[in-house]
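Design a sequence for this backbone.
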């Protein structure tokens, strides 16, 4: 972090001399001086002059903040008002901080210019009749200051009031003082969050913890805070390396250090921690101190160095750094800051500073190599600094050699630091750590717990310990994630067991080691886990024969992710807990295999025909996955696997029946039978009370569900989509009261039973129908009967019951249901929780007005609703009562609607509804031209704009809107379109390598929601379409500039000097995860949106608002869209439908 440029003065005092110069202001000035705060106060000799002298303007400009003493006659002084106007100008343009003091006045009187202030301005208006602009400037300045949160005297004692003001100004100032740590990249945001927890300036005593993995920068962060804040405490002490020092010299030495540093060299003689505790609690209890206790690793450290809150005086702050979050939580500290790794941009900058001495890399070759090293370091500051220093001054050839060595053997200095945490673990926790490092990094937490529980490692508590010790994290998808350097450290520990012979190691995962062991027959009974994977050298065939496997008696974990030569495999170790074999090539499991200990059997895409014969004991089995095993002819008898929780038979296309013993699986939670195309029925007794998820998607021959389904009391998800022959649901399904997701899409259910609409807990209801030839079915067209069924269903509108009973519903999907005007019940407005409504492909001529009462609706899909003649006015400008704040609209292929809609007016009105929400406003619709209203336009998919620092102080600016014109010429592929904003910050004096002035430091990224087209429509978007998204200022800048600069009384300052920042560069671009994207963006545009843009909204002023300005897009003759819109089947199949219907009529 660069040092902060200093001002000449800390504080500029603005006051009315005759009111407060010789009393309140004089006392305030004296108190600020005593606190070491450099304060400017005008010379009383200057009062006689008429015009404000230029040195006062310079003093304001050279001050960090202004303190304005708003007294009763303040506004009578034209001099004071000129000062005030200049202060407000500096605030708006340079980020100058302002702190008003309301001295015996009410801020509302200032805002409304009442009482004395009204009288004062009456005199000024009389005096300056010819200069109305000056009066207006003064009024605006006074109003702005009145709106800033300040300090009120409120009959308090002035001495205490002044002390409080000085303390708070001092606290804000100390966070801006220069910190000469030029290489502390990315620290500003971290300090900002940490300061919000420390809450300096308050009178309470706070103990704050900083937790994180080794090398992540905990000590560095604590040191910066200590340097910045220590001058504002009566005593201070930084005790470094507590873990190491206490081990060598004992805790008494650290207690003495604490007393010595805080009490200015006073010596104490005591010889045990109990005496030390007594002295600390007595001598420091009335002293305001700042103490940092660094690298704590056990509770005794805290008991002897921190004790209780009352060991220290009011206003004290104690900061503790540790790798063990649980230690902090168990000690009940006031708050914990969790350190995180650096962003990719910050990591790259830090590495470059260490490797090249600057943020810029001159050589392209070294740039590529730098990215490789930065990726390896994974954002860990320790690794970036060590590796950057190592590579400094070396040429490209040496870089390549060193990088290759890193891949084989990681840097010792880094791993030794990381290993400290591992060495403090219990034996079972070490085993869990090593298993995750070698086999399970990135796997689902619940699955790993099942497997490790079968190994008797007590993973519920063990994994929690690893998380609290910052050795492991769980991401938002409930997957375990271990930093790659921690993973490498764990793997190195395993290698150290036997450097020369991998067969003597407990875990094998590297291809070369596994190849060596299998082909040279060097396996031993030490091996507990193995991954067999030759994807890097697929030409090498690995031999997995009985001689090799029989030596691995203790093998617990076996993953086979490739084809192997195992024709002679007649043995598997009976100690196996996990057998994960992708594409298992044999018809049966070895007959000698006794899977008594097996917890998870994963044989996806195998050639297996039958799992086991007879009563094979599988009492520990919890997960069985046979996905895509097309040769499996029947499911096993589940009687001997009573603890099974997950059963996946997806894609087992030869299974006709499921063994009736499935009904005894009292712990089964997930049953996935998706795409079991031959499955005709389910066992009559399938009322498994524990079952939570039942997936029957695309079971095309399934005719019905058994009535026992009502016994699945815990069922939350039921997916019947694509079950074309299912015409009814059993009545007792209504007993499944906990059901949350129900998908009946593309079934033969024309009229869903009424009880569905009474399920109080239902959150997602899908009743979509298929329309048009499905691209996913193109290679394997359905039978004529299925085609007939589909055609018959499309001709019958979906019959909907009252929707008022679905009180928890968040998503309702009714795509291609042949719905007309009036088919949607009016009580849809009762769905108070509804967030997503899909109505695409229906035959409305207008959208029901009741939709506008869906106050939580975020997405409305109307794609392919070609009968709608114009965008509904009640959607553009919904009523204020229970207003729908829908932020995403999909009107793909709705040409008639857009032709008759003034899009600019629609934009204005929608913006007015959602402008100040921290959400995106987005839509896709037909359109070939970008409106002229978008002031910045360019060809291509990316556009840049400079945003001045001043604009963030301008309350009239509300956000930015982006748009583009695009097509999608390939509907067969899953394709996404989204907008990403990259915000590059520029400070004065900085310049990037390209001379643009932007060095790429700490860019922020903000992304819109993504639009997936092939899911919503199975036809290409050949004609131009228009996509727009709006970003509010709060979304682009989640924290206001006031907060960052410490202006509000309770706001938390950061080390950022806002006056030094000139402007940001905002780069808007469309994004896609696919490098061969079929979505092609032709041009794009942006506009800064101000409040004024939304004030004068009328139809006439937006005359150029039609997107389809050239008429050719909407007003067209019969074309490919109309051909496709006629129906999903060719004309001959249509005639076949008519013929079949005629036959049905004759039968009846």
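Sequence:
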């Amino acid at each position: 972090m660069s040092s902060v440029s200093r001002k000449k003065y800390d504080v500029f005092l603005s006051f009315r001399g005759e009111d407060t110069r010789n009393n309140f202001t004089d006392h305030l000035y004296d108190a600020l001086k005593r606190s070491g705060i450099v304060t400017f106060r005008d010379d009383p000799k200057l009062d006689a002059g008429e015009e404000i002298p230029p040195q006062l303007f310079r003093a304001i400009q050279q001050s960090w903040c202004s303190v304005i003493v708003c007294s009763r006659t303040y506004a009578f002084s034209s001099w004071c008002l000129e000062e005030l106007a200049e202060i407000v100008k500096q605030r708006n343009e340079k980020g100058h901080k302002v702190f008003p003091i309301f001295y015996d006045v009410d801020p509302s009187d200032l805002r409304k210019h009442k009482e004395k202030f009204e009288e004062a301005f009456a005199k000024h208006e009389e005096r300056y009749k010819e200069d109305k602009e000056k009066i207006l400037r003064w009024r605006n300045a006074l109003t702005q200051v009145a709106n800033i949160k300040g300090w009120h005297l409120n009959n308090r004692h002035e001495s205490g009031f002044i002390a409080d003001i000085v303390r708070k100004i001092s606290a804000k100032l100390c966070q801006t003082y220069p910190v000469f740590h030029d290489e502390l990249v990315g620290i500003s945001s971290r300090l900002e969050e940490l300061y919000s927890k420390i809450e300096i300036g308050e009178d309470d005593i706070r103990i704050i913890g900083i937790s994180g993995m080794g090398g992540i920068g905990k000590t560095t962060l604590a040191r910066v805070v200590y340097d910045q804040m220590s001058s504002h405490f009566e005593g201070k002490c930084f005790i470094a390396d507590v873990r190491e020092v206490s081990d060598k010299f004992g805790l008494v030495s650290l207690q003495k250090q604490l007393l010595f540093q805080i009490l200015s060299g006073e010596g104490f003689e005591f010889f045990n921690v109990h005496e030390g505790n007594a002295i600390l609690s007595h001598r420091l209890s009335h002293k305001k101190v700042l103490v940092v206790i660094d690298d704590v690793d056990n509770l005794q450290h805290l008991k002897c160095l921190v004790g209780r809150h009352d060991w220290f005086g009011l206003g004290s702050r104690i900061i503790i750094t540790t790798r063990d979050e649980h230690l902090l939580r168990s000690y009940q500290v006031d708050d914990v800051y969790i350190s995180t790794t650096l962003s990719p941009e910050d990591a790259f900058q830090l590495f470059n500073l260490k490797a090249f001495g600057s943020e810029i890399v001159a050589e392209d070759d070294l740039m590529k190599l730098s990215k490789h090293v930065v990726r390896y370091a994974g954002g860990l500051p320790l690794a970036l600094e060590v590796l950057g220093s190592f590579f400094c001054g070396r040429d490209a050839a040496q870089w390549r050699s060193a990088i290759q060595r890193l891949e084989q053997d990681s840097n010792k200095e880094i791993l030794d630091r990381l290993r400290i945490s591992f060495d403090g673990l219990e034996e079972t926790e070490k085993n869990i750590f090593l298993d995750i490092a070698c086999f399970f990094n990135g796997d689902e937490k619940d699955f790993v717990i099942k497997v490790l529980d079968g190994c008797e490692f007590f993973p519920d508590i063990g994994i929690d310990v690893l998380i609290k010790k910052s050795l492991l994290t769980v991401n938002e998808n409930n997957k375990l994630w271990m930093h790659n350097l921690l993973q490498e450290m764990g793997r190195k520990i395993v290698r150290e067991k036997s450097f020369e012979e991998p067969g003597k190691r407990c875990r094998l995962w590297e291809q070369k080691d596994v190849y060596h062991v299998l082909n040279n027959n060097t396996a031993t009974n030490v091996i507990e886990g193995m991954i067999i994977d030759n994807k890097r050298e697929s030409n090498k065939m690995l031999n997995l024969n009985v001689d090799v496997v029989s030596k691995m008696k203790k093998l617990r974990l076996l993953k086979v992710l490739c084809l192997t030569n195992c024709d002679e495999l007649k043995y598997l170790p009976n100690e196996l807990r996990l057998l994960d074999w992708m594409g298992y090539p044999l018809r049966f499991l070895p007959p000698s295999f006794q899977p008594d200990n097996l917890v998870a059997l994963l044989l996806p895409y195998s050639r297996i025909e039958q799992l086991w014969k007879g009563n094979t004991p599988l009492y520990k089995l919890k997960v069985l996955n046979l996905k895509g095993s097309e040769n499996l002819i029947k499911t096993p008898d589940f009687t001997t696997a009573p603890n099974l929780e997950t059963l996946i038979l997806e894609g087992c296309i030869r299974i006709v029946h499921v063994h009736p013993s499935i009904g005894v699986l009292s712990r089964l939670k997930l049953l996935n039978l998706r795409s079991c195309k031959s499955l005709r029925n389910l066992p009559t007794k399938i009322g498994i009370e524990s079952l939570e998820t039942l997936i029957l998607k695309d079971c095309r021959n399934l005719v019905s569900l058994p009535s026992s389904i009502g016994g699945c009391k815990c069922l939350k998800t039921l997916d019947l989509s694509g079950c074309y022959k299912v015409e009814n649901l059993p009545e007792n399904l209504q007993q499944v009261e906990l059901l949350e997701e129900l998908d009946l899409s593309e079934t033969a259910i024309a009229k869903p039973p009424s009880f569905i609409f009474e399920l109080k807990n239902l959150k997602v209801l899908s009743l979509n129908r298929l329309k048009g030839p499905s691209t996913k079915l193109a290679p394997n067209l359905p039978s004529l009967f299925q085609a007939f069924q589909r055609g018959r269903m499309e001709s019958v509108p979906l019959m909907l019951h009252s929707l008022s009973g679905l009180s928890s519903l968040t998503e309702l999907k009714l795509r291609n249901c042949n719905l007309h005007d009036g088919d949607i019940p009016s009580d849809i407005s009762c769905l108070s929780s509804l967030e997503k409504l899909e109505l695409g492909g229906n035959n409305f001529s207008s959208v029901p007005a009741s939709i506008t009462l869906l106050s939580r609706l975020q997405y409305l899909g109307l794609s392919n609703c070609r009968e709608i003649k114009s965008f509904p006015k009640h959607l553009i400008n919904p009523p204020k009562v229970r207003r729908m704040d829908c932020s995403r609209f999909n009107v793909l292929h709705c040409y008639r609607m857009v032709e008759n809609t003034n899009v600019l007016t629609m934009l204005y009105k929608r913006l007015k509804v959602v402008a100040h929400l921290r959400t995106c406003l987005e839509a896709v619709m037909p359109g070939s031209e970008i409106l002229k209203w978008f002031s910045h336009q360019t060809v291509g998919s990316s556009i840049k704009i400079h945003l001045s620092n001043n604009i963030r102080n301008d309350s009239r600016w509300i956000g930015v809107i982006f748009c583009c014109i695009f097509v999608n010429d390939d509907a067969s592929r899953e394709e996404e379109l989204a907008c990403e904003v990259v915000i590059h910050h520029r400070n004065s004096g900085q310049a990037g390598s390209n001379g643009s002035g932007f060095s790429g430091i700490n860019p922020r990224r903000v992304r819109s929601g993504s639009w997936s087209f092939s899911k919503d429509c199975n036809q290409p978007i050949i004609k131009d379409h228009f996509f727009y998204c709006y970003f509010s200022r709060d979304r682009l800048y989640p924290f206001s500039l006031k907060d960052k600069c410490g202006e509000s009384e309770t706001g938390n300052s950061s080390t950022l000097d806002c006056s030094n920042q000139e402007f940001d560069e905002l780069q808007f671009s469309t994004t896609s995860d696919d490098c061969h994207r079929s979505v092609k963006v032709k041009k794009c545009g942006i506009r800064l949106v101000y409040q004024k843009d939304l004030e004068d909204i009328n139809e006439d002023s937006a005359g150029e608002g039609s997107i389809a300005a050239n008429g050719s897009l909407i007003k067209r003759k019969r074309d490919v869209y109309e051909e496709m819109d006629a129906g999903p089947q060719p004309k001959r199949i249509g005639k076949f439908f008519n013929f079949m219907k005629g036959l049905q009529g004759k039968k009846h």
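The mean pLDDT is 82.
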